[in-house]
Write a structure and sequence with these properties.
Number of domains: 2
Keywords: DNA-binding, Transcription, Transcription regulation
Largest sheet: 6 strands, antiparallel
Domain HTH gntR-type: 2-70
Oligomer: single chain
Protein name: Trehalose operon repressor
Radius of gyration: 22 Å
Number of strands: 10
Strand content: 25-35%
Organism: Gracilibacillus salinarum
Shape: elongated
Pfam families: GntR, UTRA
Order of helices and strands: HHHEEEHEHEEHHEHEEE
Amino acid sequence: MQNKYMIIYQDMVKQIDIEAYKPKEFLPSENELTTKYNTSRETIRKALTLLAQNGYIQKIRGKGSVVIDRSKFDFPVSGLVSFKEVSEKIGQQPETMVHACQLIDAPPDISEHLKLKEAERVWQVCRIRSFSGSKIILDKDYLLERFVPHMSEEIAQDSIYAYIEGELNLTISFAKKEIVVEEPTEEDRSLLDLDGFHNIVVIKNYVYLDDASLFQYTESRHRPDKFRFVDFARRNH
């Protein structure tokens, strides 16, 4: 015989799947669920814990349990594509907000990433990506001025890669990528909707032109509930 909390868990999963409990909405309180299922608060908490562990809800201290939007977007790991190209492929129309677009002296950490031997200026472009009203990606780009002498908010709003390839006639060739999971920074929390989230997925891109010149360093910082990072692998014999 199944434990009662498992029966409750399965019923709540069904309710979430049919959107009786809609994404981004809070579940009834523990007291309300206790009454609904005619059981103890401990049993309800076990069911809620299982829902959280399996990605159906996010517990937010002092507020309750919110239903997670389980629709995810596939981002290619091995490909080198712009955000605009990925968005068009998955049929989504996200909103891009340009938070910063300025020419600065490369900070020490960016100089290290771009392997600069002496001081150089870089374009710092910071963009926030919003899906369905939720700000879930923070893209931070640093492009060497000697390769990209001009940048504007209008270009950043559209597609930097389309500008580089179409207007500057540069050929973007390959990139080295690193994927790490980090705790959100104060900047992440101020610019993204991260209430209840304690990790963020960071993709670091070192992007090269066809002559092997490293011209761009990018950090793309993703809220972890909305994305799958996919690749295709073939075994060599």
